[in-house]
Amino acid sequence: MDLLNQLAETFLNWEEMAKVIPSLILVGLPNALILAVSSGILGSLLGLLLAFMGISRNPVARWTARIYTDLFRGLPAILVILIIGIGLSPIAREITGSRNPYPLGILALTLIAAAYIGEIFRSGIQSVEKGQLEATRALGFSYGSAMRLVVVPQGIRRVLPALVNQFISLLKDSSLVFVLGLAASDREIFRIGNDAMANTGNLSPLVAAGVVYLILTVPLTHLVNFIDNRLRSGKPEKREPDELAAPIGKKA
Amino acid sequence: MAELRSGSLTGKNLHLSFGSNHVLRGIDLHVEKGTTASVIGPSGSGKSTLLRVMNRLIEPDQGDILLDGRSVLKDNPDELRRRIGMVFQQFNLFPHKTVLDNVSLALRKLRKLDPEQARTEALEQLDLVGLKHKANSRPGNLSGGQQQRVAIARALAMKPEVMFFDEATSALDPELVKGVLALMADLARGGMTMVVVTHEMGFSRNVSDTVTFMDAGLVVESGPPAEIFSAPKTDRLKGFLSDVL
Lengths: 252, 245
Fold this sequence. Notes:
The complex is a heterodimer.
Chain A: H1 2-11, H2 14-54, H3 59-74, H4 77-87, H5 89-96, H6 102-127, H7 130-139, H8 143-158, H9 160-173, H10 189-200, H11 204-233, H12 241-250
Chain B: E1 9-18, E2 21-31, E3 36-40, H1 47-54, E4 62-67, E5 70-71, H2 77-82, E6 84-87, H3 99-109, H4 115-128, H5 144-156, E7 162-166, H6 174-189, E8 193-197, H7 201-206, E9 210-215, E10 218-223, H8 225-230, H9 235-244
Parallel strand pairs in B: 3-8, 3-9, 6-7, 7-8
Antiparallel strand pairs in B: 1-2, 1-4, 4-5, 9-10
């Protein structure tokens, strides 16, 4: 029993958790979301550009995208965050006039996310049947409009689940910006839990931080499944009233 | 279909190679205004490629294309394709758009109609192919025959001068073929200039004005259907006809 009590005391000390929960919710959560959402949006834009470069007929564009992707997918996230966050901080300080590490943290997360998202978009766009492009061009659309109006929207739909997965992983990776040194108000979920653990020697604040991550990520994984199913079976069709009436009235 | 403005179409000495594969070896095809030319031949003979070269989805290596007697090789290919409607074996409807949007997309974006007018015209086209009541469905909820009729409506909505059909009924269940062929025959009778690549020998014989038999990238024989089907001159055409009839 002693052992169980000791484990409970270490991981599930409600008092230590209660102390940290307000700042987890009020400081850590918004900060983590700022990091993940902004780098998610920027990473998607850069990723889309990389996808277009990756399928371009221009070999320079293709190779640039290839090398970029290999580089940022091949490096550990923490290494990229450190290199960008510390290496570019003098320049960032000059431009923005602040020591806030968020712009560089977001930049690093964006660069990493773009490499993955670019590959996701590329595979989605390439999975659209060739006939779609052909039929659109046969109507008289240019290559660019055909891609924009018909091919890319279908490609993106197909990879929505993979994109949400990528966002989940971005949300978790956002914890790594702690290596750049954060002021109290800049701390995200992990750092708040970690600081409290370091101060008290009790792991419960980290467990609480973990729970906050799960509250964010578990619904998202279920959203992935939902989207996946929806894409597979399609939206239930809305029937027009006269269509429902037709088979009844037909032979009456 | 009162306002058809169809034109004649001519391909002259068309050549195309993919690497060492010489797909078209100097094809001549002339379709008079308001007539239907069917193109028959074994698979791999270059029939479908010929259609794609004549609307410049693929640029020919050599030769000329004339629409209403004027060469169109120097025109913007996108503008040429607006004047030539095309219907595919696999329908190629846009699955993420409603039937109505499939038809009205090009009206809005290319003919620059305002949304209300595009909608009205698209519904008119759908009515002509008997599918106005499916306007709000997704293509995936339609039968193959219905999808192909929507694809025909989509092409016709651009008011093309010529229509291409690339084995338009080959992917359809047998019981759905008739409806699509009937629609194509209606169009032909209505005075549309049509080039029909087909395996439907009945259609070729009864509806078309000329029949062109292709094999290995060459026109082997061409003429009115009565001649081609009743009095084939070459052994290759005789062999082909005995295989398919």
